[in-house]
Amino acid sequence: MLGVSENAVTQYESGRSSPRRERVPALLKILGKSINWLLTGEEPEEEVKAQTRQEQAILIKARQLSPESQEILLRMIDALKK
Q: Measured in Å, how far apart are the chain's first and last C-alpha atoms?
């Protein structure tokens, strides 16, 4: 999924090497994690409180939207609740 060998992933996991800077956004997307998690190992409190993987995924994706798109998303959610 990342476009690297299995050996490269093993190197990343063991700390013997790091992914190239241009691969980091794809890696974060694949893992469903934030840059903060990658750098600190800590999850934002809201994500820790999320009840399901689906709820976490929704939260992460909503954060990637522009403020205008977030407002549209909120209106869509309200419409779906009716």
A: 38
Give the span between the Cα atoms of 24 and 22, in whole angstroms. Answer: 6
Please report, to the nearest 10 degrees, the dihedral formed by the alpha carbons of residues 75, 57, 55, 53 taken in order. 160
On whether the pTM is more than 0.70, the answer is no
- Give the pLDDT confidence of 20-74 residue by residue, as tens digits: 888 888 888 888 888 888 788 887 776 667 678 888 888 888 989 999 999 999 9
Q: What is the DSSP string of 34-55?
A: -HHHHHHSPPPHHHHH--SHHH
| Cα–Cα distance measured from residue 62 to residue 14, given in angstroms and rounded to the nearest whole number | 31
